[in-house]
Structure prediction request, 190 residues.
Amino acid sequence: MNRTARPDVVLRRLTPADAHAVTRIHFDAVMGKGHTHYAPHQLDAWTALDRPDRRLAQIHYRLAMPGRFLVLAEAAGRPVGYAWLEKRAMHQGRPDAAYLESLYVAPEAMGLGVGRLLLATVEARAAAEGAPTVGLDSALMSVGFYARHGYATGPFHRYRMGGGGVWVGFRWMTKRLTGPAAGPAMTAGA
Prediction:
């Protein structure tokens, strides 16, 4: 289903106060769509550390580091998606690359253009900061989404999740940026 983004979707800078919302979005997205590509024990391991206190620590850490960009999507005042981008001096052997750490959309907002809006925003930010590429470790159920947006598929690899005991597979993907872009507008404080 290819629906356009709802007109009431607003992007703003993600803050520590969003830890509960980010935890919910991540858990719901992984559990809601992950069953198509992952076994139940892998999903359990992937979401085992989904706690607001852990997300709060991650948000504080990312906000304190230079080159990080955290954005939250809201629809009708309710958080429905988020993305975390970081600029790295060197990533996967490429200088000044941007790495998309996370992009998740709540299941009830999937298909409404929220992911597309978040992706366009982080890509525009990366281009504006001079990154020649954006790279990411795509969940297997999201490979098609990124491919539709111009990302090239790279090698398959696995991470240990849930305290290191369970292997979960991902696909490396990259996109070459064409230059500074005027991404979607963000609200004040962005």
